[in-house]
Amino acid sequence: MIVNHPTIHEAHRLLLKRELSSTELTRAILERINQVEPKVHALVTITDELALKQAREADRLLASGETSPLTGIPVAVKDNICTRGTRTTCSSRMLENFVPPYDATVAEKLNDAGAVIIGKANMDEFAMGSSTEHSAFFPTRNPWDLSRVPGGSSGGPATAVASGEALYALGSDTGGSIRQPAGFCSVVGLKPTYGRVSRYGLVAFASSLDQIGPLTQDVTDCALVLNAIAGYDSRDSTSVPYPVPDYTQSLKADLSGLRVGVPGDYFVKGMQTEVEAAIQAAINKLEELGAEVDREVSLPHTPYALAAYYIIAPSEASANLARYDGVKYGFSSQDAGSMFEAMEKTRQFGFGDEVKRRIMLGTYALSAGYYDAYYLKAQKVRTLIRQEFDRAFERFDALITPTSPTVPFKIGEKIDDPLQMYLSDVCTLPVNIAGLPAISIPAGFAGGLPIGMQIISKPFAEETILKIAYAYEQATEWHKRRAEI
After folding, report:
1. List 153, 315, 404, 457, catalytic entry
2. For residues 198, 202, 204 and 206, what is the CA-based torsion angle, rounded to 10 degrees?
């Protein structure tokens, strides 16, 4: 019995009842990939042999009773998360043939849970972008409208889930790279608190901002995946040794007594009226469910977050990407007369335009004479933004905002206008600057295109945002809609 677009918990129930085997489910997913992948281009690498091998092992585990909720369930993994023996390209020519000799911690956790990895998902090169048009290989297309972007940089993982190529996916989020594509593709995307999920084995973009998280079809699945990947890891110096609760225990439909703030600063100039109307309707629904809503909240430093982010993130990228010099691994230009010329050509031809743009921005911001004027000032703004959130969470359990100020835009519409592309993340990147947890959930459609609602809470309050997300989801029908491809 193969259910169309099953959730993790639906498939798990069928697997336990022996009405479905992991091998059957995996073959059905691989068949689905064959059908839709030529249209959406969500996957850089399809690991069909590995998936079937893992599915057979999962069936053995299921037969012996050694199961977890993820045992035998097909997953797509963003292509900046290291997977031993399977190439990890970061959708860049620089790492086009790189095969990691080790697994990222989250990949280890998936393997320990008996997951079935069906492939590595496309992304903006080195996670730098908001549309997945900056992949060195091909742009990914939004399954709701193939002429539009799926968001970025986790556009491949979001599209894989929305189009039925995987039951869930792992992405990374540096300034909105899980939540914005989740909003654009009408799936659930969670960015955990910084330090909640190990970054070991995640190819670094901006180390003080990056965080791995799940993209799923509903909130229950999101809680199940977070249960599996969260936790302390001694190999990640930024990992926090807090106990991991069972996040599924927070999934309750009653919001009585919860205090919710709506910061007007996130309803930015130029926001589409349909997006604002959908979010206001969603807030009304939360009020009906028992939440106490305050619509007069102000976070006055929010307008400075975009500028601070585009100093901090490129500066860290400049340092992290210095390792790609053509000597140790990755692409290496052989057409050079000296070591320095080889290094220059390696970076010239190995990196795409957006990556080079951000490296130059970051290198400039860190250079002598400009460090204090740019990087240091951006870090001070970061502190002010974090303090502002701290004060807000003394009054509120959560904040509600749009995930994006617009519905998905056309492919090519913003590719030549970096500033307009950067503005796509204006609602999401303050969360990364402050290291907070946030989730995007489906909250409506405008002209057939998805709209996402973002729920933000204080550090390590994932249970709170999952509770609010679940209550809203159960009271609406948006999460039940599926893209027809």
Report:
1. 153
2. -50
Which residues fall within 8 angstroms of residue 477, CB to CB, at 6 or more apart? none
Determine which one of 68, 130, 177, 457 is catalytic.
177
Crossing angle for the helix pair 22-40 and 8-16, to the nearest 10 degrees: 150
Cα separation, 177 vs 210, whole angstroms: 9
Amino acid in position 272: Q
Residue position matching structure tokens 């249960």: 227
Of 189, 210, 199, the residue nearest 232 (C-alpha): 199
SS3 336: coil
Q: In 3-state terms, what secondary structure has residue 157? A: helix
The 8-class DSSP code of residue 368 comes to: T
Residue type, 380: K
What is residue 408's predicted lDDT score, i.e. its pLDDT? 98
Tally of domains within the chain:
1
Q: Hey, is 103 helix, strand or coil?
A: coil
Residue 273 CB-density burial (10 A; 0-12 exposed, 13-18 middle, 19+ buried): exposed
Q: In what order do the strands lie in the sheet with 449-456?
A: 43-46, 116-121, 74-78, 168-173, 211-216, 188-191, 438-446, 449-456, 398-402, 259-263, 292-297
Please give the helix or strand (H or E) that residue 420 lies within, else none. helix 418-422
For the chain, how many residues are written?
485
pLDDT of 1 strictly over 60: no
> Which residue range forms the structural domain that includes residue 378?
1-485
78 carries an active-site annotation: yes
pTM over 0.90: yes
pLDDT digits (tens, 9 = 90+) for 383-442: 999 999 999 999 999 999 999 999 999 999 999 888 888 888 999 999 999 999 999 999
Strand ranges (E), 51-115? 74-78
Quick one: tokens of 449? 């295109």
CATH of the domain at 378: 3.90.1300.10
177: annotated active-site residue: yes
pLDDT tens per residue across span 310-330? 999 999 999 999 999 988 889
189 beta partners = 215, 440
CA distances from 176 to 16, 138, 386, 468 (A): 36, 21, 17, 20
Out of 21, 22, 68, 78, the active site residue is 78
CA 36 to each of CA 42, 72, 120, 124, 213: distance values in angstroms, whole numbers, following the listed order: 9, 22, 16, 20, 25
* C-beta of residue 117 within 8 angstroms of C-beta of residue 51: yes
Name 120's bridge partners: 45, 77
